[in-house]
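does this look right to u?? magnesium ion version
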Amino acid sequence: MATERTLSIIKPDATRRNLTGKINAKLEDAGLRIVAQKRIAMTKEQAEAFYEVHRERPFYGSLVDFMTSGPVVVQVLEGDNAVAKNREVMGATNPADADAGTIRAEFAESIEANSVHGSDSAENAAREVAFFFSDDEIVG
Ligand code: ATP
Ligand code: MG
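got this back:
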């Protein structure tokens, strides 16, 4: 299996409820290693650019408002098949569809306030990691 890196974000609904540690425990229990992590307040410009692919979607404006409504924790996860493994641990976008035991099944409030983000491909992971981190901030 290939060692990969992926970008994870603990979203404002989760930082507000003090769930950073519980979410990190789920990631680590799944074998993912947190090789970079910082708590930031995303600016509107950052959120708009990060979610650029969703610009035409009806939820785009609301999503940008949500992601700037409180602190987020951006992190780089490393491990075997990290992109797919993280998506597995996260669960489906809509918590109503998320498998039992996943982060979203346990913690998400709604399809928008769904506690975590995870890159959806190796290609997007590379772009998203570089969006928030310089190489010297990532220590594997
Ligand atoms: P993420 O990209 O955050 O890891 P995802 O890949 O499961 O989640 P996307 O389809 O990429 O979901 O949507 C990005 C984010 O936009 C979702 O995580 C959620 O916060 C929000 N979102 C997606 N669909 C909807 C919707 N129908 N209504 C409101 N918000 C939505
Ligand atoms: Mg996505």
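The first strand starts at residue 3 and ends at 10. idk if thats expected tbh
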